[in-house]
Each structure stands twice: as C-alpha cells, then as structure tokens.
Amino acid sequence: MRTSWGMPPLDNFKYPSTFAAIQDRVFARYGCLNAPCHGKNEGEGGLSLLPEVAYDNLLGVPSEGSTYNRVEPGSPRTSSLYLKLLKATDPTVDVPGGGMPNGLPPVPDQLIEAVRQWIFSAAPETGTVPGTQALLGACFPDPVPISIEPLPDPEPDA
C-alpha cells in the first residue's frame, strides 16, 4: 500500500536511533534527498542531507539566509530545520524563504513533532528520544539509561 503521492505508509520499521528514523522517514521519504534539494554534496542553501553527512551538516551549523542555526540542540524554535518544516504547513512561521520540502507535499504534523522532540532532547545522533517511536512509526532499541559516575565526596573541611 502506498500513499497518494507514492510513498510507503509509516509502518514499524526498525532503526538504530531516532535520528536514523528521521533521516529515512523525513529526509528520504519527503524529497529532501532529491538532487535539486539537499541530495548532493552542496545542496540547496549549502546543505547536504545525504546520510553520511546530514548530522554533521545540521548540528550547530548556521543556516544560510537566517539568523538561526540549522539545528540548535534543545531549541526547536531557533532551529531552521524545524521552522522550515513547519512553514510548509503554516506560512506565518517566521523564517526566511519557503517551507520544506519545496514543491512537494508537506511533511505530516506527526513527523514534524518527532523532529521537534528530537531537537528539544538535544538532537542526539544515537539513542532513542522517548515519545518519538509512535510519531515516526518506528521501532528502536530499548533506551539505555545514562550512566553518570558520581563525584567523589568532598573533603571534611570543604
């Protein structure tokens, strides 16, 4: 079964991380990897979203034509990627230029919300962002708790 524009439906595919699912479910399925857009080494706006470089090209990198970074970890409202995806369905979003993807059906709200949650959760390259599995229609490995070694006890006179 395919959607009206030829894309497979969102079924529970397995991905190693939330970002890997975003790479496939958002960038690949909604035309972002087409050559005229971001599917070549120097894509539109100098941004390539090819899988081998997408993460490094997004995190903390200034967006061309905007005062925002492409992705500002922890801050969707100052991340050009999120705002451009949102602008395709809400033209009042305050970000220069048109929405993404340009000239293709917009990314569904549930996937935009997954991108928002990923950015809000510090945009990790690996691991699972809680709450994104259902939004992305994906299966991820079980979350692994962060292991933090406690600080040593202070000296008695400190």
Report on this structure.
It is a single chain. Mean pLDDT is 83; it is low at 1-8. Helix content is 26%, strand content 3%. It has 158 residues and is mainly α. The chain is globular. The longest helix has 12 residues, at 109-120.
What's the rounded overall pLDDT mean? 83
Largest sheet: 2 strands, parallel
Distance between the termini: 67 Å
The secondary structure category is: mainly alpha
Computed Rg: 18 Å
Helix content: 25-40%
Total number of helices? 5
Give the strand order of the largest sheet, numbering strands 1, 2, ... along the chain: 1-2
Global morphology:
globular
Short description:
The chain is mainly α. Helices cover 26% and strands 3% of the residues. It contains 5 helices and 2 strands, in the order βαααααβ.
How are the elements arranged and paired?
Layout lengths: L12 E2 L3 H11 L25 H5 L21 H8 L21 H12 L11 H5 L1 E2 L19
Parallel strand pairs: 1-2
List keywords for this structure.
mainly alpha, 158 residues, disordered N terminus, two-stranded parallel ribbon, 26% helix, 3% strand
